[in-house]
Amino acid sequence: MKIILTHEVSGLGTAGDVVDVRDGYARNYLVPRGFAIRWTKGGEKDVEQIRRGRKIREIASVEQANEVKGQLEGVKVKLAVRAGDAGRLFGSVTQADIASAIKAAGGPDVDKRRVEVGSPIKTLGAHQVSVRLHAEVVANVGVEVVAA
Predict the structure, then answer these.
(1) Surface-to-core class of residue 13, CB atoms within 10 Å of its CB (0-12 exposed, 13-18 middle, 19+ buried)
(2) Which spans are transmembrane here (predicted)?
(3) Would you place residue 123 in the very low, low, confident or very high pLDDT band (cuts 50, 70, 90)?
(4) Which of 74, 114, 118, 133 is deepest in the core (most CB within 10 A)?
(5) Angle at 129 between CA 123 and CA 135, to 5 degrees
(6) Between 148 and 57, the higher pLDDT residue
(7) What is the pLDDT of residues 23-61, one digit of tens each?
(8) Could you write out the DSSP letters of every residue in 112-138?
(9) 6 φψ region: left (φ > 0), alpha (ψ -120 to 50), beta (else)
């Protein structure tokens, strides 16, 4: 099935790309979550608008991405969450939580879709997350999860 991506999907493409995926993946995952729309001749006109919007939001050059990477890696991010006695969290820390904690710690504004957490954060302590700033630049950020 041919679809137009409206958001960046890891391993598939960026917003505005027209890609061909399996029918079930598009019907059951991408379209219901708003990551893509079905490709039509009329929808092809929307591609240019999506690409213009992406160009405004994205980091334009590798130099700019390296500058933001330096800012991110210099920020100490502390995230207070509810936890039990054994240090296990009630739930887990999400990408949106991390993005807002980076902003609150004085770091640059980061899109939650660019934050990559290797495995779900469900315990207190220090954790490493990656922020994909550009196709070639990834910043590693240390997140300290503490009990609230």
Answers:
(1) middle
(2) none
(3) very high
(4) 133
(5) 160
(6) 148
(7) 999 999 999 999 998 988 877 777 777 777 666 656 667
(8) GGGEE-SS-EEESEEEEEEEE-SSS-E
(9) alpha
